[in-house]
Design goal:
- This protein is α+β, with helices and mostly antiparallel strands and 328 residues long.
- It has a domain at 12-156: DNA primase, PRIM domain (Alpha-Beta Complex), CATH 3.90.920.10.
- 22% of the residues lie in helices and 22% in strands.
- It has 6 helices and 19 strands.
- The chain has helices spanning 42-51, 53-60, 124-132, 175-191, 218-235, 297-307, and strands at 12-16, 19-23, 29-31, 40-41, 66-69, 79-81, 94-98, 116-119, 135-140, 152-154, 162-169, 197-200, 206-211, 239-240, 252-255, 265-266, 278-279, 281-282, 295-296.
- The strands form 6 sheets. The protein has a 6-stranded mixed β-sheet, covered by helices on one side. A 4-stranded antiparallel β-sheet has the order 6-5-9-16, with helices on one face.
- Helix 1 packs antiparallel against helix 3 (124-132).
Length: 328
């Protein structure tokens, strides 16, 4: 990563992308060190999001952002945040997103509290603002906001522009098994005209992303992903499409559910709030195999500087749309 911003413990105000952003506690250790590693500070998190901003911002563009925050670092408590918090800068755009039955989109509660006002991240200043809030994970839906200019949208009725298949290894399985399964999934997607890009999740497994037309509802996309998952689970003994943990030992869960219009997935290039400072990183197909491993923030930044982004021109706002999915 590039040299981190200053770590003076007193609050700082910096100007970036024409915005003024207040930074606090830059010396706070967000990821602890170990016997052979040093701690990673908030200043280094800020440097990471700036290093990968040209890749991360296109993945966030037009997508409401759910944040997972660890104010005291990963050894402390965390909380999920959907609404834009109090004190959000006036230059941060927001969008109101409604869910089913008047409930909050992305929430397990079916209440009548009305829409959630989500922030949108448009520039480097927005990334730094969230990093300062110790938002270690940025999660987004599979759809982007329409160009209608509506102030309120309903997440159930948006049309996803990407299909995601989540490969989640159970106990006794790991990235080697995920790599083997990723190839099988990609082959079946290719049979339907889809081209997938693998992304190591920064946690245990990986996701496959494939651009789609953006002209079909989330119910169609979710049903297609479910058929894909259940077909592979039927054909491959160590693959399951069942969420229950008691059936996942030694298997890889092929999670199709994240294509639901109300679900979100970790955004490619986002940091992860795990034990180690890792990131969700797009990978080349020739990297997959028995020796595949998750990448640290510094490794992800170095890779982007040296090789660019495998998702560039594929899942970016200016990319051509993918194919329509076959329907039963």
């Amino acid at each position: 990563m590039s040299d981190p911003v200053g770590v003076d413990p007193t609050p700082q105000v910096i100007e970036i992308a024409g915005r003024r952003v207040r930074l606090t506690h830059l010396d706070r250790e967000l990821w602890p060190g170990g016997p052979a590693t040093r701690a990673t500070t908030k200043a280094e998190l800020v440097s990471y999001v700036l290093d990968v901003a040209p890749a991360l911002l296109p993945q966030l563009a037009g997508r409401p952002v759910t944040r997972v925050r660890w104010p005291q670092g990963v050894t402390g408590p965390r909380f999920f945040e959907k609404n834009a918090p109090s004190g959000t800068p006036r230059w941060v755009r927001t969008v109101d997103v409604e869910g089913s039955g008047g409930g909050r989109w992305g929430s397990s509660q079916d209440d009548d509290a009305g829409p959630v006002s989500y922030p949108l991240v448009d520039d480097e200043a927005g990334l730094v603002w969230l990093a300062n809030l110790s938002a270690l994970e940025l999660h987004t839906p599979q759809w982007r906001l329409p160009d209608s200019g509506d102030e309120t949208v309903d997440g159930r009725h948006q049309h996803p522009d990407r299909l995601v298949v989540d490969l989640d290894p159970g106990p006794g399985a790991g990235l080697a098994e995920c790599s083997e399964l990723a190839v099988l999934v990609a082959e079946r997607l290719a049979d339907d005209g889809l081209s997938a890009v693998p992304v190591t999740s920064g946690s245990k497994g990986m996701q496959l992303y494939a651009p789609i037309s953006g002209t079909q509802g989330a119910d169609v996309v979710s049903a297609y992903a479910r058929r894909l998952a259940e077909g592979l689970a039927k054909d491959v003994a160590w693959v399951t499409a069942v969420m229950a943990k008691d059936v996942r030992r030694g298997k890889v869960l092929l999670d199709w559910s994240q294509n639901n219009g109300a679900k979100t997935t970790i955004t490619p290039w986002s940091p992860r709030g795990r034990e180690h400072p890792q990131a969700a990183v797009p990978r080349r197909w020739d990297e997959l195999g028995d020796d595949l491993f998750q990448l640290s923030l510094s490794e992800a930044a170095e890779r982007f500087a040296a090789e660019g982004d495998p998702l560039a021109g594929v899942l970016t706002p200016d990319a051509p749309p993918g194919p329509r999915l076959p329907e039963p």
